[in-house]
TrEMBL record:
Gene3D superfamilies xref list: Homeodomain-like, Jelly Rolls
Alphabetized InterPro entries for the sequence: AraC-bd, AraC_XylS_family_regulators, Homeodomain-like_sf, HTH_AraC, RmlC-like_jellyroll, RmlC_Cupin_sf
Residue runs in coiled coils: none
Name this polypeptide is given: AraC family transcriptional regulator
Domain HTH araC/xylS-type: 113-211
One GO MF term attached to the UniProt entry: sequence-specific DNA binding
Superkingdom, natural source: Bacteria
Pfam families: AraC_binding, HTH_18
Presence of the UniProt keyword Ribosomal protein in the record: no
Keywords linked to the UniProt accession: DNA-binding, Transcription, Transcription regulation
Length: 214
């Protein structure tokens, strides 16, 4: 299943908000996102397909998807939707922006964008800060500073967030054992995987699957 990553949608990770108008002229295969999506039907009809089942769509229908949740479209007839994309940490971002007086975000440095793409493409690799910095030809300390200015977190924290989001999607979409899912996202020790996942979502993988899987 194809996953649309944050770097595909948000050129500036410090401002994780985007939108577009899409004419859905054919079926859309199931896919997942590493961010929130809100879709509002402007015209036409269709069927929204997700883990929750099939839901008919018509004008003014609204679809809300959390990070890691898969969905697709079928039986589309003149379907046009307005999509809004919100980064997984959008609420923390808004809280920080309000408390800091809404300081303007800086554009992402090309090396940071490259580093993000590397992490997203090889999420299960045994990444270290030194290896990532060498891959983008920067000193580790300088990469940390650039990453902080762009994403507000360190490179390794960003990697852990990606892994948690990918694991969340697999928990919902598959019946794979939690240990297997952990290994697929780069957490090869089950206890470590559980701690990392719970640190991100506030509940262990078993609890997340029980709470959100239909």
């Amino acid at each position: 299943m194809h996953e649309i990553l944050s770097s595909d949608v948000f050129p500036d990770q410090r401002l994780p908000v985007a939108g577009e108008r899409i004419a859905v002229s054919a079926d859309v295969a199931p896919h997942s996102h590493a961010f929130f999506e809100i879709a509002v039907v402007l015209t036409g009809t269709g069927t929204h397909v997700s883990a929750a089942g099939e839901v008919p769509l018509e004008r003014d229908s609204v679809v809300v998807l959390r990070p890691g949740e898969w969905h697709g479209y079928a039986d589309c007839d003149g379907l046009v939707v307005r999509n809004a994309y919100l980064g997984a940490d959008i609420f923390s971002f808004l809280s920080g922006a309000l408390s800091s007086g809404g300081n303007r975000a800086r554009p992402a440095h090309p090396a940071v964008q490259h580093a993000m793409r590397l992490l997203e493409a090889s999420i299960d690799d045994p990444w270290t800060l030194d290896r990532l910095a060498a891959s983008v030809n920067l000193a580790p300390g300088y990469l940390i500073r650039l990453f902080g200015r762009t994403a507000g977190i360190s490179p390794m924290a960003y990697l852990n967030r990606l892994r948690a989001e990918r694991a969340a999607g697999l928990l919902i979409e598959t019946d794979l054992p939690i240990a297997t899912i952990g290994a697929m996202v780069g957490w090869h020790d089950p206890s470590h995987a559980t701690r990392r996942f719970q640190a991100h979502y506030g509940r262990p993988p078993t609890g997340y699957r029980a709470a959100f899987r239909p």
